[in-house]
Amino acid sequence: MFRLKKTLKLFLVFCFALFFFLSVLPALRTPLLDTSRQPLIILTFLKREIGAIIFYHRNFTRNEKLSREVDFLRQQLNTLREAYLENLRLKQMFSFKQSQPHRFVAARVIGRSADNWSSTVILDKGELSGIKRGMPAVTYLGLLGRVSETARSTSKLMLITDPNFSVSAIVQRSRQEGLVSGALGPHLIMKYLPEGADIKVSDIIVTSGLNETYPKGLIIGTVEEVGREFSGLSRYAVIKPAVNLSAVEETLIMLQ
Amino acid sequence: MRNWIFLAVIFSLGIMQATLLDIFRIFNLKADLLLASVVIASLLFGSGWAVFYSLCAGIAKDVFSHGEPASLNTVMFVLYSLLLTWLSRKITLENNYLRTALVFMIALLHNVITGFVWICLGKTLPYGIFFRVVFLASFYTACAFLVLLKVSPKEFLAQ
Question: A21 vs B70: CB contact, 8 Å cut-off?
């Protein structure tokens, strides 16, 4: 009788724990994330300031290098602006309709993943700004990731290096298709390339547009290495992301 | 009073892990301060409080990380806390270096379990990255634990 009571008690505790861990805890996560918004903003600001002091010399030399680059790019931008204006004039001439299919919401990174097994960042905008789960995030350099969780005033963004992330992609030059996935490290892996795939080092990889979530032509990165799968049936490519994911501070969420 | 201070410490460590700790990343890895706090709680407090703190630390970690698979950190942290309170009844864990070794073992176990869960879920994880996270992150967590012990007030750590 005593043993039966003990077993029943254990069973009840187990059922309660199962219910708690599977239903109550996930529901608690979003309000908790919202509550931590202000401390996260303050500490991210502090982190930036401390980082600036610690890495003063590196920043100083980088600043000099970037200043030179800015001068060069300004010159190029001017040339491109001329080309753009010419393109605009030609488009108008041929009555092409200039359409802007996407709207963006700018968000600031206020926190990063607390563990080493995922690559996510916390943003300071959420459902109130129209952000929904699954929306892609970009910077002016290329694809950054996808919104994986939203709260009222914060959201979590899964970066392209996260192992959960996959996107259908093509090689810009040869239009060879493949699947780009994150691998937790600084690089991405493009899988399911056929044996005779036309892909080589320095090729630019862009989104294919086959998946409705990501518009076609967003830059993902450049090929750094091409290898053969262990099975010998297909090839893979190691891709360097176009965006420096460890230094990203702002992002644009593509509202669809 | 000490109990509620420790709760605030756990919350602060969670926020720090998501923000300030990024500066101290080594090989793109950061120490798991929340796991270290679970060990401290299990060694300092009774089993009831220790489980409560582990639950809070686990929730904080799940909130600030990817959180998949659902509540893995919360469940594991509670189990580690139960294991540690049981272990502390069996053997004396007074020496700081012994405690650090214990943190290393727990962190190693946690990283191995998490890594295998990710692999079982079909995620792409190169061997190099898997072993780097498992060993280096555990070592880094143990070092951070030692630092935490050094900077904590002695009265606070008294059992």
Answer: yes
SS3 state at A123: strand
As for how many domains chain A has, the answer is 2
Give the pLDDT confidence of A87-105 residue by residue, as tens digits. Answer: 876 776 565 444 546 788 8
Cβ of A181 within 8 Å of Cβ of B32? The answer is no
pLDDT of residue A98: 47
d(CA B5, CA B150): 18
Task: Check if the beta carbon of residue A121 is closer than 8 Å to that of residue A109.
Answer: yes
Distance in Å, alpha carbon of B155 to nearest chain A alpha carbon: 28
* Cβ separation A111–B75 shorter than 8 A: no
pLDDT of A238 over the 90 cut: yes
Contact A43 B20 (CB under 8 A): yes
Cβ-in-10-Å burial (0-12, 13-18, 19+) of B108 comes to middle
Q: Do B65 and A118 touch (CB under 8 A)?
A: yes
**From the CA of B130, how many Å to the nearest CA of chain A?**
9
Q: What is the DSSP letter of B132?
A: I
Residue A50 lies in a domain: no
How high is the ipTM of this complex? 0.81
Residue B130: which residues within 8 A CB-CB, separation 6 or more?
B115, B119
> Is A57 within the bounds of a domain?
no
Of A25, A32, A186, the CB nearest to B71: A25
This prediction has a pTM of 0.77
What range defines the domain where residue A212 resides?
101-256
Does residue A150 sit in the same domain as residue A230? yes
What CATH number does the domain located at B2-157 have?
1.10.1760
The ranges assigned to domains in chain B are 2-157
pLDDT (tens digit per residue) in A17-74: 777 766 667 777 777 778 888 888 888 888 888 888 888 888 888 888 898 888 888 8
Distance from A135 to chain B by nearest Cα, in Å? 16
